[in-house]
Design a protein that fits this description.
Elements (H helix, E strand, L loop, with lengths): L30 E17 L2 E2 L2 H14 L10 E7 L2 E7 L8 E15 L5 H14 L2 E10 L3 H7 L3 E10 L1 H9 L3
Antiparallel strand pairs: 1-2, 1-4, 1-5, 3-4, 5-7, 6-7
């Protein structure tokens, strides 16, 4: 597992003029390892978990990322999670510090699962991520969703792929076995 590496993403010009078509190949059941991976951290307001200012916040952050040349050339990764029914947190992967934005880093091991369906199923997917991590012998930390396309592009492409990303703390006994196995 390469540090801070992500599965390959399609970054060619999107058919919709907005989000590129997402190819889930390589994202299902993936183990990621981050070491001080740099992110812009932004929050949105929600009403009963439905974002109400996401477009404005994402446009602002993406503009600052582009202006500072911090966009990862290998693709876009935005990890999102609900902090409450009225607030969401979004972590935008970047390659360098972005002025005018709050910065954070992520370190640790994560697992992924690919889901397909309407956004309203996200709470079910968060639950499934927690169970999947536990079944694999992991303690679960924060669980994020990577919404690969906006609603308009999901309709245009006919698929709405969402990648669940869970922070894990491996069971010490299992961690020792994996190290011995060369993982």
């Amino acid at each position: 597992m390469q540090t801070n590496a992500l599965p390959k993403m399609e970054i060619s010009a999107p058919q919709t003029g907005c989000c590129p078509r997402f190819d889930p190949t390589g994202w299902e059941g993936r183990h990621l390892h981050f070491q001080n991976k740099l992110f812009v951290c932004a929050t949105t307001r929600s009403l009963l978990h439905v974002p109400i200012n996401m477009g404005r916040v994402f446009t602002r952050v993406q503009g600052h990322i582009e202006d500072s040349g911090a966009q990862d050339p290998d693709g876009t990764l935005v990890l999102s999670r609900d902090l409450s029914a009225s607030e969401g947190e979004h972590l935008f992967a970047v390659t360098t510090t972005v002025p005018e934005e709050e910065m954070t880093t992520l370190s640790g091991d994560l697992i992924t699962r690919v889901f397909e369906g309407p956004y309203r199923k996200s709470p079910d997917w968060v639950h499934e991520m927690g169970i999947a991590a536990q079944v694999m012998g992991h303690e679960v930390g924060r669980i994020f969703m990577f919404y690969t396309t906006c609603p308009r592009c999901a309709r245009a492409y006919g698929k709405n792929y969402v990648v669940g990303v869970a922070e894990i703390d491996m069971d010490p006994e299992k961690r020792g076995r994996m190290k011995d196995e060369g993982s």
